[in-house]
Write a structure and sequence with these properties.
Blueprint (H helix, E strand, L loop, with lengths): L4 E6 L7 H8 L12 H11 L3 E5 L11 H20 L4 E5 L7 H13 L5 E5 L1 E2 L6 E2 L6 H10 L2 E5 L16 H4 L1 H14 L2 H4 L4 E4 L6 H14 L6 H9 L2 E3 L6 H10 L5 E2 L9 H14 L6 H9 L11
Parallel strand pairs: 1-2, 2-3, 3-4, 4-7, 7-8, 8-9, 9-10
Antiparallel strand pairs: 5-6
Helix pairs in contact: 3-4, 4-5, 7-9, 9-10
GO molecular function, one term: hydrolase activity
Keywords: Decarboxylase, Hydrolase, Lyase
Family: Belongs to the metallo-dependent hydrolases superfamily.
C-alpha cells in the first residue's frame, strides 16, 4: 500500500516562541509539543499511522522585512530541515522556505539551492507578505519572477494562510485568529491567484491549499460570477475550473461534510492528508485522521496514492512493505 504522507506538518525552531504568540493570536500550542524535536514528531507520526511527514515552517516565517537577515533566516531553516531529512531519510521531507518573494532574485536563488542541492520536496509560501495596508497577496505582480521559476520546474507549492488579524477583534477566546481568520486567508490567496489569471498562467505549479482551502468551496461560486461581473476576464466556468485545480489538504478540516464538498468540487485525485502537528495535540490530529478514514473507508489508499504520485521521489511500498 502507498505510504501515508502528511503534507501539513510543521517544524518549530527553538528560536520561535510559540508560547509568547498564544495571547496575541488566540491559540495555544500544546505544552507537550514544546520544545519541538524530530523525535517528538516521529512519536506522533507512529501513533497516527503516518509514514512520511513533509516539514514546513508556520506561514509568515522567516519574518520580514526583506533583506540580508530575511535571506539568511530562510537559508538557515532550509539547511536545518535538510539535515533532519538526512538523519531520518525514510520519515521526513521538507518544503523549502524562501526570502520574501518580492525580493525576487534572492527568492529564486534560494529555491534553486533548496531544490537542486538540498533536495527539498517543494516550496512553502504564505498567503500574503507584509502587514496592514502594505501587505500584498501571493498573486502580486512583484512575485511573478518566483512563480515563473516554480512553473518552469513544475514545483509543488504548499500555500498556507497567514495569521492576519481581522479589522475587528476575534469574537471569543474560543474563536482565535488561527480558527477563524487563517482559513479565510488561504481562500483569499487562492482567489487572488485565480482572478488575476496567475493560477492559469502558472498551471504547471502544483499548489496545495492548507485546511481544505479554508472557505474556498463555499465562496468559489460567489467569486466566479461576481468577480466576472466586476471585470475579471475569465468566464465564471473558467474561474470555477481554476479553483478546482488546486490540491487540498485535510489538516484540521476533515469531516464528512467538508470532504464531500471538496471531493465534489476539486479535480479527481486532488485531496491530500495533513495533520498540522505539532500546532495541535495528537488527540486533536487523531480526531481528523479518524474522520478521513471513516469517509474514505471504501477507498483507504486514495489520499496516499495522490501524495505518492505528487511527491514522486517518495517510494511506494507493496503490501508486504
Amino acid at each position: 500500500m502507498p505510504r501515508r504522507i502528511d503534507v501539513h506538518h510543521h517544524i518549530f525552531p527553538k528560536t520561535l516562541s510559540k508560547s509568547a504568540q498564544s495571547e496575541s493570536v488566540g491559540f495555544k500550542t500544546p505544552e507537550e509539543n514544546l520544545p519541538w524535536s524530530p523525535e517528538l514528531s516521529l512519536k506522533a507520526m507512529d501513533s497516527l499511522g503516518v509514514d512520511v511527514a513533509i516539514l514546513s515552517l508556520p506561514a509568515g516565517l522567516p519574518p520580514g522585512p526583506s533583506g540580508p537577515e530575511n535571506r539568511k533566516a530562510a537559508r538557515e531553516f532550509n539547511i536545518m530541515a535538510a539535515q533532519i531529512c538526512k538523519e531520518y531519510p525514510e520519515r521526513f521531507g521538507f518544503f523549502a522556505s524562501l526570502p520574501i518573494p518580492s525580493d525576487a532574485q534572492a527568492a529564486v536563488m534560494e529555491l534553486t539551492y533548496a531544490l537542486d542541492v538540498l533536495r527539498a520536496d517543494g516550496v512553502a509560501l504564505a498567503s500574503s507578505y507584509g502587514e496592514g495596508a502594505a501587505a500584498t497577496y501571493i498573486g502580486d505582480d512583484s512575485y511573478d519572477a518566483v512563480w515563473e521559476e516554480l512553473d518552469r520546474r513544475g514545483t509543488v507549492v504548499f500555500l498556507h494562510g497567514t495569521q492576519t488579524p481581522s479589522s475587528t477583534p476575534y469574537p471569543h477566546p474560543f474563536l482565535g485568529i488561527p480558527i477563524t481568520e487563517v482559513p479565510n486567508e488561504t481562500f483569499k490567496a487562492a482567489a487572488h491567484l485565480v482572478v488575476t489569471g496567475k493560477k492559469r498562467r502558472w498551471s504547471n505549479v502544483k499548489i496545495i491549499l492548507a485546511h481544505l482551502g479554508g472557505s474556498l468551496t463555499s465562496l468559489a461560486p460567489r467569486v466566479a460570477r461576481l468577480s466576472h461581473y466586476m471585470g475579471c476576464e475569465l468566464a465564471p466556468s473558467e474561474i470555477l475550473e481554476d479553483f478546482g485545480s488546486f490540491y487540498f489538504d485535510t489538516a484540521l478540516s476533515a469531516h464528512e461534510t467538508t470532504l464531500s464538498a471538496v471531493e465534489s468540487f476539486a479535480m479527481p485525485g486532488h485531496v491530500l492528508f495533513g495533520t498540522d502537528f505539532p500546532a495541535v495535540s495528537v488527540d486533536v490530529a487523531r480526531y481528523y485522521t479518524e474522520n478521513v478514514e471513516k469517509y474514505y473507508k471504501d477507498r483507504p489508499t486514495k489520499l496516499n496514492e495522490t501524495a505518492a504520485k505528487l511527491f514522486n521521489k517518495i517510494d511506494i511500498r507493496d503490501e508486504q512493505g
